[in-house]
Each structure stands twice: as structure tokens, then as C-alpha cells.
Design a protein that fits this description.
- This protein is mainly α.
- It has a domain at 93-308: MetI-like fold (Orthogonal Bundle), CATH 1.10.3720.10.
- It is 77% helix and 0% strand.
- The protein has 15 helices and no strands.
- It has helices at 2-29, 34-38, 45-55, 61-72, 87-122, 127-141, 144-158, 174-199, 203-210, 215-226, 228-244, 247-252, 258-268, 271-299, 301-308.
- Helix 1 (2-29) packs antiparallel against helix 14.
């Protein structure tokens, strides 16, 4: 297991390097000059060249990228072109907001998704099952930004129950967390239902019932436990998606998290800030996938033995 984890960590470093390289190349081939965006139109050519020199933008691209990689190895991702704030400081400060939003959405998705999936499987063909299946299709199909805007219009503007922007109080997370969690709740409910249907009619389930075990014990201790592998796979992946993919939700609700500064850095061509946030997103994805793979060994010992062999 230790050698497997070390191998995956080495692959993680390669992935992060590839992501940083592709991001750097793409941002430098897109038309536009961040210095011209910073300076007023009446700025002199001499002033523009002086700013380019101070920011290191007059150096060859290979030198700029080498300097970035060298700094990243020391956890120094440079400074924002516009705010002059250290990228690592900005990411650390904004990460707390994104973590609160993602954890709230994750709790909603897990609690409601698994519960709805289990009950739907137990009531296959009934009205609740049809409702869950229809709701799952709608939840997966609806774009996050559309759901966010609908929630703002209904619960924020029309009913006035909840704030529609900013994070001035804990209530400010209710609408964005709900908008972000609905899609993942629908995915988890559908996978849970399918996985439960595969195990609910197995021989060991009938044996457990014939021994006189209550339905609660049969469902949770036998059926759900053996149906967890695909659920854990999806739940682990969705956690990475929630932490890294909340850009549109944060933008719509003006939540000052990682996603919002990523969108801002794209619009302003703030290369250091964009590279830092993209590396953050990539790291979240690969580390969450690694955590999922490791959790398999604890859920099903056969997987651990297969990896050790």
C-alpha cells in the first residue's frame, strides 16, 4: 500500500507539472496584454515598457515559465499582476470560504442523495421511486448557474427569506450550497439506487432476513455496506468537483472564494493568480481520487490484496 501511494503521488506531481505548462502556454497565446489592461489608455509607451520590465513580462517565455516552476517548488506562486498580493496568500485566505461552501453542499448531497437512493431502491416501481428517478434526471440536467438564478429569484428576491450575494452571515451559504449540491445529490441518489438494486436481492440478503434480522439492520449492515464501492467512488470524485468546480456558483452569488478569483483572473489575464488557482484545482482532483483509491482497501479487503499482489 505504501509503494502504491508513493507511485500515485509521483504521478500527481507529473499531472500538476503538465497542468501548469498547458495553462502557461494557453494564457500566452490568447490575445491581450495584462499591462494594457492595468494602465490607462493615455499611458506612455515608456511607462508601459517599464511596467512590463518590473513584472518580468519582457523576458522570454521559457525564462518566465522556469521562474514560475522554480518558485512553485518553494510554494511561491508569485504575485497578482493587479492586486500585487501573493498568490499563495490569496489562495489560503479564499480557501476557507470555498471549503465552507463545498462542505455544506457536500453534506446536503450525501445526506439526501444516499437516503433518497436507498429508499427508492426499497420501493422500486412505486411513486417515490418514480419521483426520485425523475428528480435525478432533472437535477443532473439543470445547469448550476440556472439553478442558482432560480433560487435567487424565488427565495431571495420574491420571498426575501435569504440573501442572494456575499457571505455576511451563515444564512448566506444556504442558497449557494443548495444550488451547488443539487446536481451532486441527484448523481449520488441515482448511483445509490442502482447499486442497492444490485445487492438487495442477493442470497446473503435473503439469508439475513431469514435469520430474523430487522429490516433496518439488513439494509444498513448488509445491503448498503456491500453497495458502497460505486457510491464511495462517486462521492470522492464529487468532493473534488465541489471544492474545485464551484466557480459559477461563487460568481453568481458573489462568494469570495477560489472559484471567483479564478474567473476574475481569466477575465483580467492575471497569469500568476490563474496558474495558482488552476494548480489548486488540479491538486484537489488528483488528491481526492487518491483518497478514494485508498478508501477502497478499507471497504473491501480484496482490493487491498489485489494491489499488494
Amino acid at each position: 500500500m505504501a509503494s502504491y501511494i508513493l507511485k500515485r503521488l509521483a504521478q500527481t506531481l507529473i499531472v500538476l507539472w503538465g497542468v501548469s505548462f498547458v495553462t502557461f502556454i494557453l494564457m500566452n497565446v490568447v490575445p491581450g496584454d495584462p499591462v494594457l489592461l492595468m494602465m490607462e489608455k493615455r499611458a506612455t509607451p515608456e511607462a508601459i515598457e517599464r511596467i512590463r520590465h518590473e513584472m518580468g513580462l519582457d523576458k522570454p517565455l521559457r525564462v518566465q515559465y522556469f521562474n514560475f516552476v522554480k518558485g512553485a517548488l518553494r510554494f511561491d506562486l508569485g504575485r497578482s499582476y493587479f492586486t500585487r498580493e501573493a498568490v499563495m496568500t490569496a489562495l489560503t485566505r479564499r480557501f476557507g470560504v470555498t471549503l465552507k461552501l463545498a462542505s455544506s453542499a457536500y453534506a446536503i448531497a450525501l445526506a439526501l442523495g444516499i437516503s433518497a437512493g436507498v429508499v427508492s431502491a426499497l420501493q422500486r416501481g412505486r411513486a417515490f421511486d418514480s419521483l426520485v428517478r425523475g428528480g435525478a434526471v432533472l437535477g443532473i440536467s439543470a445547469p448550476v448557474f440556472w439553478v442558482a438564478i432560480i433560487l435567487q429569484l424565488i427565495f431571495g428576491l420574491r420571498l426575501g427569506w435569504l440573501p442572494i450575494s456575499g457571505v455576511r452571515s451563515p444564512h448566506s451559504f444556504v442558497l449557494p450550497a443548495t444550488a451547488l449540491g443539487i446536481r451532486y445529490m441527484a448523481s449520488i441518489a441515482r448511483v445509490t439506487r442502482t447499486s442497492m438494486l444490485e445487492v438487495i436481492h442477493q442470497d446473503y440478503i435473503r439469508t439475513a432476513r431469514s435469520k430474523g434480522l430487522g429490516e433496518y439492520a439488513v439494509v444498513l449492515r448488509h445491503a448498503l455496506k456491500n453497495a458502497l464501492i460505486p457510491i464511495v467512488t462517486l462521492a470522492g470524485t464529487e468532493l473534488g468537483n465541489l471544492l474545485a468546480g464551484s466557480m459559477l456558483t461563487e460568481w453568481v452569488f458573489a462568494v469570495p472564494g477560489i472559484g471567483k478569483i479564478m474567473v476574475d483572473s481569466i477575465l483580467m489575464r492575471d497569469l500568476p493568480m490563474l496558474q495558482g488557482t488552476v494548480l489548486y484545482v488540479a491538486a484537489i482532483f488528483v488528491l481526492s481520487n487518491l483518497a478514494v483509491d485508498i478508501s477502497y482497501a478499507f471497504i473491501d479487503p480484496r482490493i487491498r490484496y489485489a494491489k499488494e499482489d
